[in-house]
């Protein structure tokens, strides 16, 4: 059946809104993760000259001459562009932040003889293949540099992909840690949410309303406030430690804050409603006569649960788990406030590179990694469970 | 008045300030806000307006070279004098965002301490990273960085700033490197390894802070027994919250904020006049009693009460063995060492 055009038009403002406020800015940000546009405007001739270089030894005279010409042109044009290009190159090869502006200053005056000799006299760095490799890698317009960096990989001057040095490999560990924490939080939410949802779904009248309200209430309190409340409760001289000490249960305060325990606790507290609500919907949609019929036909209670109740509520379980898991994967505030240094998740690093070290390329590449991880999890879920609505099974 | 005249009037009003602004806006001075700018207002801004009959507008910012960059690039810069951190001074000077400073017009380079002199900026305040502990909980505290790293003599958590900057310098000094050699050693791969090895020895006992307000809070709550901190925050906690925190000045790491004049400022002459005014020792001497930062003109220390001077990074006994944070080093190495630091810290 064809829908009337008018109905489609009614959704146009919403689509436009989503496009302008959601898809476009996120797309523009992610785009930075796969492009490189800071070095080419400053060193256009050098990038072209390096295209034919094989990455071993130093490039030929024409690359040195192109570098000198580019730097002179940049000095007489937009002077701010050289430090910006240098900052990008510095992210690849430390030392560039000083090297490029210094070289630009020194080659400005005309000199006799070959460009190669003059540039090498300024700094021996220009005799290193990796110095030129960094410029070639940053030549853009498309670039795998940031995405590789987000996976602890890098290219050398010859273009071969290698592992990053052992002491700077961090992101794969962090990705695995994010997945593990999310999985843990999902499991705890399921274990706590299942009985609660069952209780809500099977109680009637005022009790059901009150129980549901208790689950919904946290939705109306800001996430930051709830996280901060845990800080007050869990800190060294906080309420929990004070109560345990007053009760004579412990002698010295327990370290409850700045660790994995606090992170999982805070996240479960925030995400529990997302598990309970789909489960309640699934249980309520479940025909109460079916378990009763199974029981009347002689099935033991555990058998009724395993063969009837559980399979019928699976879509709700799936929906709850995927909701909790995906939200947990992107958590930022709670681990940042409650966790220690080795409890930080991928989002913390995205924030770190976006706002603190102003390396937007890497921040965008990490976001891409996170997005792909979420996409794969959803696809896996779709494959295993199918996208049926809870209760519709 | 009908609608059309109102519209015309509005258009004229919108056009007028733009023209007026381009020709003769008031000198605009930008600083960090908060208690610091309140003190500056009393000591610098108001007296400057009264004594020189100049008008002065104040604004506040949170730093970031990108802000300055976009102001110059857009051509819509309304700031004249800005207080910047040392790193922004270095990058901004490189990128041509600031006017070169006419030192002769503000009293000459000899009128200031050597650390405050730069071709594009004049130092405004000095502040230090120091060791702090609570005398109420620990009578005999550490004396230097080696003690800070000594978990046998001083058990308990210690607060440090989350990031390689200052942390690696402290580790090297604790390992016996003299302040003058710190950046020489840190410039070599072996030196970086050495710093991380030293940090490894107390890794389990470090609580990492990310905001300057955390160290005094943690000390007060007993979360940490020792901590790295900004000297101003510790003095403020003592002065206003009735704390009895001790500051260890041995080998403190200090840095400066500087005044710069934005490139192309139409108020350059007034800006220089302002810098000359706030560069006088008699004027600068008013600031430290209100907020415990060191100031940069020579001859201020003699004008300060002894108890104020003792809590300043610029007191002779405090600055004697101090290390100045090297912005040049960190500009080149921050990316690489941050990556390594993040890896190390999250293992």
From TrEMBL, chain A:
Location in or out of the cell: Cell membrane
Domain of life: Bacteria
Gene Ontology CC entries for this record: plasma membrane
PANTHER family per record: ABC TRANSPORTER PERMEASE PROTEIN, INNER MEMBRANE ABC TRANSPORTER PERMEASE PROTEIN YDCU-RELATED-RELATED
Domain ABC transmembrane type-1: 175-381
Transmembrane segments: 179-199, 206-225, 261-283, 312-338, 358-381
GO biological process: transmembrane transport
Protein's recorded name: ABC transporter permease
Alphabetically ordered keywords of this record: Cell membrane, Membrane, Transmembrane, Transmembrane helix, Transport
Key word Transmembrane present: yes
Family classification: Belongs to the binding-protein-dependent transport system permease family. CysTW subfamily.
Membrane topology annotation: Multi-pass membrane protein
From TrEMBL, chain B:
Segments forming a coiled coil: none
Protein name: ABC transporter substrate-binding protein
Residues passing through the membrane, by range: none
InterPro entries linked to this entry: SBP
Organism: Neoroseomonas marina
The keyword Lipid biosynthesis appears for this protein: no
Keywords: Signal
């Amino acid at each position: 059946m064809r829908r009337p055009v008018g109905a489609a038009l009614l959704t146009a403002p919403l689509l436009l809104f989503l496009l302008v406020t959601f898809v476009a800015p996120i797309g523009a940000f992610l785009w930075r993760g796969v492009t490189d546009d800071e070095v080419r405007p400053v060193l256009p001739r050098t990038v072209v000259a390096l295209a034919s270089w094989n990455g071993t030894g130093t490039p030929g005279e024409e690359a040195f001459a192109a570098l000198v010409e580019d730097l002179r042109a940049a000095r007489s044009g937009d002077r701010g562009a050289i430090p910006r290009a240098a900052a990008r190159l510095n992210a690849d090869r430390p030392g560039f932040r000083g090297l490029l502006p210094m070289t630009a200053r020194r080659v400005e005056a005309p000199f006799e003889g070959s460009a190669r000799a003059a540039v090498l006299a300024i700094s021996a760095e220009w005799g290193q293949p990796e110095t030129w490799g960094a410029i070639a890698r940053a030549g853009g317009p498309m670039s795998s540099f940031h995405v590789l960096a987000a996976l602890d990989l890098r290219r050398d001057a010859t273009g071969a992909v290698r592992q990053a040095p052992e002491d700077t490999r961090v992101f794969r560990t962090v990705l695995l840690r994010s997945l593990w924490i999310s999985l843990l939080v999902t499991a705890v939410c399921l274990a706590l949410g299942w009985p609660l949802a069952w209780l809500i779904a099977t109680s009637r009248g005022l009790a059901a309303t009150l129980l549901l309200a208790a689950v919904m209430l946290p939705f109306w309190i800001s996430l930051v406030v709830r996280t901060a409340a845990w800080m007050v409760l869990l800190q060294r001289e906080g309420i929990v430690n004070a109560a345990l000490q007053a009760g004579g249960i412990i002698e010295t305060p327990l370290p409850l804050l700045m660790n994995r325990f606090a992170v999982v606790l805070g996240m479960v507290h925030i995400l529990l409603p997302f598990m309970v609500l789909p489960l309640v919907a699934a249980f309520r949609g479940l025909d109460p006569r079916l378990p009763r019929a199974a029981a009347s036909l002689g099935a033991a209670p555990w058998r009724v649960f395993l063969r009837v109740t559980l399979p019928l509520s699976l879509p709700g379980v799936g929906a709850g788990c995927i909701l909790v898991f995906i939200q947990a994967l992107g958590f930022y505030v709670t681990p940042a406030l409650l966790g220690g240094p080795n409890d930080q998740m991928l989002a913390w690093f995205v924030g770190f590179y976006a706002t603190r070290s102003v390396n937007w390329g890497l921040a965008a590449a990490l976001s891409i990694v996170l997005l792909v991880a979420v996409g794969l999890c959803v696809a896996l879920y779709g494959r295993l469970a199918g996208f049926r609505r809870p209760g519709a099974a | 008045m009908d609608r059309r005249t109102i519209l015309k009037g509005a258009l004229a009003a919108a056009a007028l300030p733009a023209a007026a602004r381009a020709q003769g806006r008031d000198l605009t001075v930008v600083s960090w806000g908060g208690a610091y700018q309140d003190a500056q207002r009393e000591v610098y801004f108001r007296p400057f307006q009264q004594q020189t009959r100049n008008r002065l507008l104040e604004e506040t910012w949170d730093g970031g070279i990108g802000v300055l960059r976009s102001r110059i690039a857009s051509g819509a810069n309304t700031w004249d004098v800005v207080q910047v951190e040392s790193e922004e001074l270095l990058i901004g000077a490189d990128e041509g965002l600031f006017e070169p400073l006419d030192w002769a017009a503000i009293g000459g380079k000899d009128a200031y301490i050597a650390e405050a002199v730069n071709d594009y900026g004049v130092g405004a305040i000095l502040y230090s990273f120091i060791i702090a502990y609570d005398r109420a909980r620990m009578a005999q505290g550490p004396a230097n960085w080696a003690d800070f790293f000594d978990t046998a003599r001083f058990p308990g958590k210690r607060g440090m700033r989350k990031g390689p900057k200052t942390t690696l310098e402290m580790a090297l000094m604790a390992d016996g490197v003299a302040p003058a050699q710190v950046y020489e050693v840190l410039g070599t791969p072996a030196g970086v390894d050495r710093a991380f090895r030293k940090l490894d020895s107390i890794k389990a006992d470090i609580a990492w802070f990310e905001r300057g307000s955390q160290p005094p809070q943690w000390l007060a709550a007993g979360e940490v027994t020792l901590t790295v901190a900004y000297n101003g925050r510790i003095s403020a906690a003592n002065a206003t919250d009735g704390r009895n925190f001790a500051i260890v000045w041995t080998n403190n790491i200090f840095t400066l904020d500087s005044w710069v004049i934005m490139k192309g400022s139409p108020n350059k002459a007034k800006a220089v006049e302002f810098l000359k005014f706030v560069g006088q020792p008699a004027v600068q001497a008013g600031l430290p009693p209100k907020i415990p930062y060191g100031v940069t003109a020579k001859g201020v220390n003699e004008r300060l009460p002894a108890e104020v001077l003792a809590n300043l990074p610029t007191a002779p006994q405090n600055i004697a063995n101090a290390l100045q944070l090297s912005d040049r080093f960190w500009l080149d190495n921050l990316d690489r060492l941050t990556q390594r630091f993040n890896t190390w810290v999250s293992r």
